[in-house]
């Protein structure tokens, strides 16, 4: 394990990401094109958010997992693109006035600010359904076995539904309005709102790379841990950034309304939890040896990021 972690530390993650993201961007651009004048508006709205320069962590993880089991980038790409479409639609809907009511996303006006709430809702719906179409169509053209394609689509569906993004968001809304949110509830929210899509990214990548069910499970554990660790790290950054900005000692934000990991576990407790999740995640992919280096390096980046 130590040797692998050292190799992941020395790994040129920036170079790896730059190369993979370039391929993902090209595939995203090709995935939705306006072919008739009647669809100009909705396609413009879909492309506006899909091509707005996210980090592309999820599609890169799908490709990395596929390659870890000996599969190719081309095999993973349609599913990787489908997952970025789902992620994008979740952000469009999350920014709507009925949800977080945000005017800015990645430094640009949000979809509904540019196209109106009505078109933004429909662009999100269209991205969601196009994701399934794209996964089916692109994977068939890439020569993926039909039963693997069906399993990928089934997993995508599950990750969006009641035990996925949508369910996680509803539970989050319910908890916003109540006091005394427990650690189990907080973890349920993040497992479904955030970790599920990372889990499906890595699990479908593994399946497309030819992994057996036991290996797919290992990948799920890896991604779920990283997803929660991402959220714990986010909460920690919120506290430390806030206290730095205010020139006060860490912990300033602990009694704000929102329930966070530092609020429930203390700042040191939350740091220890992020580290525990990171170690457990790495342990899940250590058995794959050198092939796991890109995933380990991505995990490290997610947990240790400073902003
Ligand atoms: C799924 C039907 C359906 C509706 C959407 C709004 C909603 C339900 C769910 C909320 C999902 C959400 C916004 C989760 C937070 C996920 C998260 C960690 C986003 C930030 O991801 P990054 O950092 O973003 O990968 P970039 O900008 O890099 O893509």
TrEMBL record:
Subunit structure: Homotetramer.
Family to which this protein belongs: Belongs to the glyceraldehyde-3-phosphate dehydrogenase family.
Annotated protein name in UniProt: glyceraldehyde-3-phosphate dehydrogenase (phosphorylating)
Organism of derivation: Pelagomonas calceolata
Record lineage: Eukaryota, Sar, Stramenopiles, Ochrophyta, Pelagophyceae
Full protein segment contained here: 43 to 349 of 686
């Amino acid at each position: 394990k130590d040797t692998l972690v050292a190799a992941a530390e020395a790994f040129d993650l920036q170079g790896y990401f730059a190369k993979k993201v370039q391929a993902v961007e090209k595939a995203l651009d090709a995935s939705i094109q306006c072919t008739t004048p009647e669809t100009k508006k909705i396609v413009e709205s879909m492309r506006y958010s899909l091509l707005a320069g996210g980090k592309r962590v999820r599609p890169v993880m799908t490709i990395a997992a596929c390659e870890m089991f000996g599969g190719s980038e081309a095999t993973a790409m349609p599913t990787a693109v489908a997952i970025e479409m789902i992620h994008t639609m979740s952000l469009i809907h999350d920014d709507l006035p009925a949800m977080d009511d945000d005017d800015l996303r990645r430094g640009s006006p949000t979809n509904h600010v540019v196209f109106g709430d009505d078109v933004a809702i429909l662009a999100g719906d269209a991205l969601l359904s196009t994701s399934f179409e794209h996964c089916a169509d692109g994977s068939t053209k890439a020569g993926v076995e039909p039963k693997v394609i069906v399993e990928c689509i089934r997993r995508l569906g599950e990750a969006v539904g009641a035990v996925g993004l949508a369910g996680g968001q509803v539970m989050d809304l319910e908890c916003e309005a109540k006091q005394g949110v427990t650690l189990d509830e907080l973890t349920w929210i993040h497992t479904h709102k955030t970790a599920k899509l990372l889990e499906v990214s890595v699990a479908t990548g593994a399946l497309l790379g030819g992994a057996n069910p036991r290996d797919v499970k290992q990948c799920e554990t890896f991604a779920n841990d990283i997803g929660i660790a991402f959220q714990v790290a986010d909460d920690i950054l919120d506290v430390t950034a806030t206290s730095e900005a205010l020139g006060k000692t860490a912990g300033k934000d602990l009694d704000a309304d929102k329930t966070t990991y530092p609020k429930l576990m203390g700042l040191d407790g939350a740091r220890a939890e992020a580290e525990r999740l990171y170690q457990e995640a790495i342990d899940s992919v250590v058995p794959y040896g050198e092939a796991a280096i890109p995933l380990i390096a991505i995990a490290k980046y997610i947990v240790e990021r400073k902003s």
